[in-house]
Structures are given as structure tokens and as C-alpha cells.
Design a protein that fits this description.
The protein has 3 domains: 25 residues; 311 residues, Rossmann fold, CATH 3.40.50.300; 130 residues, no CATH class. It is 40% helix and 15% strand. The strands form 2 sheets. Strands 1, 2, 3, 4, 5, 6, 7 and 8 form an 8-stranded mixed beta sheet that branches. It has a 3-stranded antiparallel beta sheet with strand order 9-10-11, with no helix packed on it. Strand 3, helix 4 and strand 4 form a beta-alpha-beta unit. The longest helix has 27 residues. The protein is globular, with a radius of gyration of 24 Å. The chain binds guanosine-5'-triphosphate and magnesium ion. Guanosine-5'-triphosphate (GTP) binds next to helix 2. The site of guanosine-5'-triphosphate has 24 residues, from helix 2.
């Protein structure tokens, strides 16, 4: 290629980049201002995202009574005021903070509702400047964009890098393993018998899709939920409930056909029709969600309910590890200049946090943190390699237990979801994923679900009790508050 050809190629590549990102460019321009960051609160379904956001807002709004000893502007008493604003994007509903606080302060208190759609808010923290020039204002504001969404939708991100036949192969491998094989029941055989080259039948597909959704519900609603539940919108469709793009199922026998057979299949075959709908799902549902909510993220908190997965057993930890590694593969790490970030936003910091750590005694917290580090080891290494700051933590957004001497043994007391006072002792938490002969005590333990603490009046300036939310705040935004 001559000089001209090379220049043409470079120009085309630049034009493509601009075109690809132009929809996000204007949205991103305002983020060039220092003191404004988009914070991703990411986590699988029920990992504690909405509770975390609620607690974070509440700790800051009620900073005078909150215990935030690890958060530098709190120690130096530089927090002047905190305000929650709606996000600039008016199409997005406001994060239901007041509803969550209402539930938490009700008699009896209850947890915030499970999330069914996207919401967000902009949190402004007004700080006293350390040493302003005489002509400067003596305060500055730090802005945090926060967004919440159903955890199920996160599981769709890996589909962007998977063709329909690759997704079918992944399902074929998973569905013959326990516990999924039992949860599928008769549907396993039906999906295995579905011939990709046979003529498509909408009535049959509708029946299969209904059964498939029931199977996904069973995966989610059993005692220990599985992590990898795809496609996420089949359970929580959001505004896409009527889309034909949501009408497909995996064909488990794709592997029995050659690539040429699948590519040359009749336009009205199961393979071609379902592939078309899968592609439409990825293009019209998954990609826009990724572009709007993940691409602008500057700093990421990934919440992981590792205690619950440990309690489920080896299959559940492995399933969670697989799901998290797929999700983290779609993160774009790096610490680039603001101008480069405009076109190619990167995650400059990531904090993996084991959530609901109040379910175990304090002396085991560090073990759980180490366990989490081993579960997400690959993602931590990737972040380190790409130059992003990274850390693992163990936190409770809302501390719902107290340590207690239970007839001579050290344990926890709290109130269960039925309102009964309970006390329990748990096995010593491991600092690594247990090996085959180490699993027994963790699966034998029946982890109780705790009710949030009673009598917290965060509607009257009191702060919610927590564990290490102040450390997360410091790690996440301490540098912006200096
Ligand atoms: N003990 C304890 N339980 C918690 C804590 N945070 C969350 N939980 C429990 O975890 C459940 C799920 O929390 P959510 O905040 O709704 O989780 P989510 O990730 O927003 O869930 P989805 O919106 O369904 O994806 C709650 O209903 C509580 O039972 C915590 O700090 N301590
Ligand atoms: Mg939620």
C-alpha cells in the first residue's frame, strides 16, 4: 500500500471511531470536568446493589451522625452539604431512594424491593477547600453519577461477543451438568431434540420459550440461586416485554451439525429464525444497555455475595466464578487522559466487594475478602495488567447483626425475616475456594436471612449502621475529595 493508501486507512479508522462513539460524545463532554465521575455499582442478581446505593447515599446525606472514620473528608470535617439531583438524562427514572428509606425505617423494617428497571441519580458532595486562594470560592463540589439496574441484565453482556451457535454450545455444555439438568427436567430432552434444520413452528417455539422461562425462574428462585441465568431479559424484560427479539431458545443439538449445514439452512428453519431473533436481541436490547450504562463508567464497584455462593457448594461457586469472569471480560480497564477517555472510556479503578459481610463474625471478614480475591483472581490480574487501580473489600451496606456470646460460643444475633430473634454460630470462613474434602461444613450450614435492624431513623438524620462503607468511599472517591 502506498503513502496515500495508508493515510486513507488511518482517516477511515478515525472516522469509524468518531462515528461509533458520536452518540456518546456529547453525553461524555460534561464529564471532562474534574470532580465528576460515573460510578458503576455492578453485581449479579441479589448481590446487594440497591441496598449499597441506598446506604451510600444515606451515609453521605446523614454524614454528621454517620460513622465514616476511614473517609478522609469526614475525618477532616470538610463535608459541608450533600444533595441528590436527578441525572441529566431525563428518560431515566430517579433512583427510588425515598422508597428504600421508607422500607428500611418502617415497623417492621424491610429490604428495598428487587429492581425491575433502570434508574439513576447524581450525588453532589460539597466540600470545604483545603487552602483556597483569596479570590476563590472556599467550597468545591464532587459529583457522582450512580445508576441501578436489575442484576439479571448484566448476564447479557457476554452475549455481545457470542454468536447464536456459540451460545447454543455453551448452553449444551451447561445443561447436562447438575444442578441445571435436574432444574430443566423434561425440557432438556425437548431442547436436545429440536432439529436446527427443521421448519420453524411458532406455536411450538412459544411453548418451549414459556418452559424455558420457568426453568430460568427455578434457577433464580431455589434456595441458592445460580449466577449464570441467560438471557437476563427473559426474567425481567423491562420495556421490551412485547419484542419478538425476546422469542427464542437455545438449540442444544447445533453441535451435531456442521457449520456449512447451519449456514446453508433454509431461511425458515429453526436455526435461521432463532439466530435472527438472538442477533436482534443482542443489537437492540443488550448493546444499547451496554453503551448507555457501562461504557461511561469511570470507577467500578463489583458486589459479590460470595458467602451465599459458598453456602451453596462447589457448583455454585464455580457458576458464580464463570458468570463474573464473563462479565469482567466486558470491562474496559485503563487509566488514560481525559481526552482519550472521551472517545474510549476506561475504568480507572475497580473495587471488588464481598457484600453482606455482617452475616459472619468480624474475625472472619478478612478470610472472606481473601476468598473473594481468589474467586475474582483473573479479573484482578487483568485490572492490574491494564494499569487500573484495584482492590478487594468485605462490606455490609446495612449491618443487621451483632456479635454475641451464645452460651459460651462466639456467634451472631439478629432478627430473621419472620421477625424471630435468632442467634447462630457459623463455620470458620475459608480464605480460599475449599478443596473437595473441605466443603462439608459450608454446605451443611444453613445461612439465615436477616431482617434489617429496627429503630434506625435515617429519615431523621440518623445514619444506617454499616461495615466498611467508609473504606469503600475512601478507595472510590477519596482522591477526588482532597
Ligand atoms: N445481612 C445483609 N443482607 C443484605 C445486605 N444488603 C443486601 N442484603 C440482602 O440481599 C438482598 C438483595 O439486596 P438488593 O440490594 O435488593 O440486591 P440487588 O443486587 O439490588 O438485587 P436485584 O435488584 O434483584 O439485582 C436484600 O433483600 C437483603 O436480603 C447487607 O448489607 N446485609
Ligand atoms: Mg436492585
Amino acid at each position: 500500500m502506498g503513502q496515500e493508501g495508508i493515510q486513507e486507512g488511518v482517516f477511515e479508522a478515525f472516522k469509524k471511531t468518531v462515528d461509533k462513539h458520536s452518540d456518546a460524545t456529547f453525553e461524555s463532554l460534561h464529564r471532562l470536568r474534574s470532580g465528576h465521575k460515573c460510578i458503576g455499582i455492578t453485581g449479579l442478581s441479589r448481590s446487594g446493589k440497591s441496598t449499597f446505593i441506598t446506604s451510600l447515599i444515606s451515609q453521605l446525606l446523614n454524614h454528621e451522625k454517620a460513622k465514616l472514620g476511614a473517609f478522609s473528608p469526614w475525618i477532616s470535617k470538610r463535608i459541608k452539604a450533600v444533595k441528590v439531583h436527578p441525572l441529566g438524562d431525563r428518560s431515566l427514572s430517579e433512583f427510588p431512594y425515598s422508597d428504600a428509606i421508607k422500607s428500611l425505617t418502617a415497623v417492621p423494617p424491610s429490604w428495598p424491593d428487587s429492581t425491575t428497571d433502570i434508574s439513576g441519580c447524581l450525588l453532589e458532595i460539597k466540600l470545604q477547600k483545603k487552602a483556597p486562594w483569596p479570590w476563590e470560592a472556599d467550597t468545591k463540589s464532587v459529583y457522582l453519577e450512580l445508576r441501578d439496574y436489575p442484576g439479571e441484565w448484566l448476564l447479557d453482556l457476554p452475549l455481545m461477543d457470542m454468536s447464536f451457535s456459540e451460545w447454543c454450545s455453551q448452553c449444551a455444555a451447561q445443561f447436562t451438568q447438575e444442578p441445571r439438568a435436574s432444574l430443566l427436567g423434561g425440557l432438556l430432552n425437548e431442547l436436545q431434540q429440536l432439529d436446527p434444520l427443521a421448519p420453524f413452528n411458532e406455536v411450538k417455539l412459544t411453548a418451549l420459550k414459556q418452559q424455558y422461562v420457568e426453568f430460568l425462574k427455578r434457577c433464580k428462585e431455589q434456595t441458592h440461586a445460580l449466577s449464570l441465568i441467560q438471557p437476563g431479559r427473559f426474567l425481567i424484560p423491562g420495556k421490551f416485554s412485547d419484542e419478538q427479539a425476546l422469542q427464542f431458545v437455545p438449540i442444544l443439538s447445533c453441535n451435531a451439525r456442521t457449520r456449512a449445514q447451519l449456514e446453508g439452512a433454509d431461511a425458515n428453519s429453526y436455526f435461521k429464525i432463532l439466530e435472527q431473533r438472538y442477533n436482534a436481541y443482542v443489537d437492540r436490547v443488550v448493546s444499547p444497555f451496554y453503551k448507555k450504562f457501562f461504557r461511561p463508567i469511570d470507577r467500578q464497584v463489583v458486589l459479590v455475595d460470595v458467602i451465599n455462593a459458598l453456602n451453596g457448594g462447589p457448583e455454585y461457586i464455580a457458576d458464580m466464578q464463570h458468570a463474573l469472569s464473563n462479565i469482567c471480560d466486558s470491562f474496559s480497564y485503563g487509566n488514560s487522559s481525559p481526552i482519550i477517555k472521551l472517545f474510549s472510556p476506561n475504568i480507572e479503578k475497580v473495587i471488588f466487594a464481598a457484600s453482606k459481610i455482617d452475616q459472619v463474625v468480624a474475625k472472619d471478614h478478612d478470610n472472606v475478602r481473601q476468598l473473594l480475591s481468589s474467586v475474582v483472581r483473573k479479573a484482578l490480574e487483568e485490572a492490574a495488567y491494564k494499569g487500573a487501580e484495584h482492590k478487594s473489600e468485605a462490606i455490609a451496606a446495612i449491618r443487621s447483626s451483632d456479635e454475641a456470646d451464645l452460651r459460651g460460643s462466639f456467634g451472631l444475633k439478629g432478627v430473621d425475616l419472620e421477625g424471630e430473634s435468632i442467634g447462630y454460630i457459623h463455620p470458620i470462613m475459608p480464605d480460599h475456594v475449599p478443596s473437595t474434602d473441605e466443603w462439608q461444613p459450608f454446605v451443611a450450614w444453613k445461612i439465615p436471612m436477616l431482617r434489617p435492624p429496627s429503630g434506625v431513623r435515617c429519615d431523621q438524620d440518623q445514619a444506617i449502621p454499616h461495615i466498611r462503607m467508609d473504606q469503600v468511599l475512601q478507595d472510590l472517591i477519596g482522591d477526588m475529595c482532597s
